Queue: 2 jobs
Job 1
Amino acid sequence: MNPLVQLAAEKPENPLIPPIPELVIGFIAFVIVFGFLAKKLLPNINKVLEERREAIEGGIEKADAAQTEAQSVLEQYKAQLAEARHEAARLRQEAQEQGAVILQEMRAEGQRQREEIIAAGHAQIEADRKAAASALRQDVGKLATDLAGKLVGESLEDHARQSGTVDRFLDELEAKAEAVR
Amino acid sequence: MSADPTQVLAFETDCHIFDGCGFPGPGLHSFLFEPIFGDADSNIYFNKTMLLALLGTVIIVGFFWAAFRKPKVVPGKLQMVAEAGYDFVRRGIVYETLGKREGEKYVPLMVSLFFFVWMMNLWSIIPLAQFPVTSIIAYPAALALIVYVLWMSLTFKKHGFVGGFKNLTGYDKSLGPVLPLIMVIEFFSNVLVRPFTHAVRLFANMFAGHTLLLLFTIASWYLLNGIGIAYAGVSFVMVIVMTAFELFIQAVQAYVFVLLACTFVQGALAEHH
């Protein structure tokens, strides 16, 4: 007997009618796959994928934070620098002003001292002149009285001293000179 | 050697062209397997497709076990590949159709479906196995049934009995007199046709693909005689081309199967229109 015919007789030829044992095995096989994947393996990998996502996003967040911090530090630094520059300019300005004031004061002081010195000099000169004048007056008086005494033949010294003649004469002389001047 | 065509590889026969031997073309018998053990009549047996189905299960679970058992934040190569596949289904299919918020719950199911279907399809071109498990209707039917049960239970859980019925029949008062017709069509479409086509689409694609591969493979061998050798060469080139094409179709069908499953779930969750 032709084996093909024999087989055809034994088995339903319609390929669309599922044989039950294959159906059962197919079902079992799929359930095994599904069980392993759904219960153990896919949750495993999902956890890791989540971790990876977090790691990547965390890294980005960290980088962002670092950048923000760097930015703020930079701004702070710039602000400080500007402040420092401003401060320096202010100090320089102040110093200049102070310097000017000090110079002014010193100039005024110098002027004052100079005037003092000049005044002192003048006073000194005046005093010296007066001393010289009085000494001169005495000498001149003495010389004049000596001379007059010799001419008269007697000492007029005491008399002149007593009467103040010489002084009076000289005073008159001075007064005349004053009047002329 | 047994003459049973279901158990004999094409190139084990001496049947060639010009030898007075007819072309042993592929057919339904190419999809029937003598049980490895058990009896086909008693419904208690174990055959090649079951073996491949279980082996495929072991391979999928083994692959993801190796990749995701101890996953690392900085992935290794295997984990990277598995993640790419996982992400493809999750983002490319589930989030696209159901949205991130509603879809998250169904990601494990859809990922399992995708890789299961793909693996079962892949058996088609894996040397020695060379048989797509999904070309036996029972396997797509089992998967489609799971999706169907999920879809129906979601529909009635979300909208209640009347609301669920309205959802399935596309109830819309503004349709006026055409409404009964629409309701009948929609009901048949949703409740009967869609789960059927869901399974058959995958089954038929794999069935046809396998038949084509068989056709060219058998022809390559059968034509190896006299002038036929030239044609055998052409046929063999077609085997290579079709194998590459099947590789593509297998992935596409797995994608379509899961995409449809997502669409059904989305329909169940949608506010009725």
Job 2
Amino acid sequence: MTRLSRRSFLTAAGVSLATPYIARAQSNAPIKVGGMLPMSGAASIEGRQVLLGLQFAVEEINAKGGLLDRKIELVIEDDESNSTKGVTAVRRLIERDKVPFIVGTYASAVVVAAVKVAAEYKVPMLSGGSTAAAGTDQNTPGDPWFFRSWPDSNKQGEDTAKAIVEKFKKTKVAIIHDNTNYGVTLADQVTRVVTAVGGVIVSRDSFNAGEQDFSSMLTKVRTLRPEAVYIGGWAGDGANIVRQAAEIGLRAQFVGSGSMLSDDFIKLAGPASEGFAVATVFEPSTPNPVGRAFADRFRARFNQDANTFSSIGFDSTSIGLEAMRRVGRPDGQEIQKMIRGGMKDFALAQGPAGTTAAFNEKGSVDFPDFIAVIKDGKRRLEV
Amino acid sequence: MDLFLQYLVNGAVTGSTYVLVAVGLTLIFGILGVVNFAHGEFYMIGGYAGIFAVTAMNLPLLPAIVFVLAVAACVGLAAEAILHRPMKDRDATSSIVSSFGLAVALQNAALIVMGPQPQRLNLDASKMPLLSELPTEFGPVFLPHQRMLIPLTMVALIGALYAVLRYTWTGRSLRAMAQHSTVARLCGVRVDRVAMVTFATGAALAGIAGMLMSSVFLVYPIVGNMIALKAFTVVILGGMGNVIGAAVAGLLLGVIESLTSAYVSNSTRDIVGFVIVIGVLLFLPNGLFGKSVGRS
């Protein structure tokens, strides 16, 4: 009887068990793709909404048999809306998981820090909600490594300001904004655009973010009889202003900045939010057939309505996956080239019908924003 | 002129909150010598307790107020056990620093439990008996029931507090402590009980303010920061430890802020109060209503 030492037995057993897996790893182990989002911290609510879009895109691809004969595995890192954590997360995704592209992230400051690292490793990033112009402005024109498949915050502000005069036909505009960089920049922009298209700014008031009592300021604004009131600031303050304005009987077309594009805003402002207008790139009721189909499939899968956040996550992930399919292998550099110029025929869920992933040389897709109006507690697109 | 009256009333409403928060703060300082930087968090907890009572427990207004008073008073008792009892024989800076710590701990606890998004208390004051029969328009002044509730509650609670301080044994022992704690102890005042009553009362008043304001405004984890700063302004204006001074100064600050945002500019409203405080500290160190007699 041949004596088998315990060690050699175990080795043999281990090899025979592991062999099929090692073989598979070479041929059809899942391709890992990266997702980086705020899963905890201040923006975790938004981050989780975006995540559903990422997961949904990957699920759909896997249900169709995956890509390049392999399944797709989504690896998620939490950046906590913190630049340092974001940089670490990008390194981990690239070095440990060897992802060919990353969808992320929500906070624009984190994007600006993280994309520098990703670009060094030649791994492209696709926005997970970041809309600030700073995200794409840091790109080298013609060679972007951060892609955002919808217009930046400047364009959003411009479309909103134009809508006040051109869509709602209101020319006397009062501006209320908070004293943060965000609020002041928006107020300057609205002033510029509204006067350029023939409107008049009747007043401009500022407040400290988080301030609670607006009654005296709004009483004063009411005496100026503005036809429209533009609010630039965070959603909570906006909701507070809209509610207190209704209380004192300030009736005008209220228009808000992009931050007020959330269901929380409607919940906080209550019935006072009726008629409130805000710019958006996607709503489940979008006239875009691709977007509408996405919304229907999303509803069937998650039993909840898709929103701007999930559409953003879905589009960014789909663009990355499709670019990888066209390239034929998980190679970051080739995928970046493909996204840059080769996706002009790829239809998106966001934007008006016919919007495609035609990135400009700064890495952004330009299309006109929708102006949604809140009616019966829901944002509706008037087209 | 019509608007001037409206601005005065708007100011009186926010001023009433300042009064409710500041009176507790000034009591705690005057009686125990504790500078409590966690006082704004009593306000925040009151707001969340109110939301819990009304939305989760479906309580009507009065029981909800009682619930909020009880919760806030318990938080006050706990704060006393942390900020005052172990530190009363130490340097005053110990309790100041630990009150900062308590404030940060409570804010983060609220962040974890309630989340960062602002919340609102859905309380329909216009359907309440008695209150709903009051008019909401007084000549040129418009005051919704929701807001009217705040000065009314303030007057009732501060009136009750004044009566307790003036006419009851507890009130007398509180005032005795404020004047001289050693002599008070010699006369049979139970010092540790006075400390507990003081903290519970102060926290309950701030909690009620938080509850009422979260039906008009919003409540979120760091809402207490600004309100605590405002309350300190009021306490300094009214004279440290002076209850009636705090009541008058609170209303005054509310009105000044309202007039500033109406006639000067809204962005300067938060500055005005602090500028006045610096002026008062420089020229009237005992506050607008303080007596300039030193303690023995």
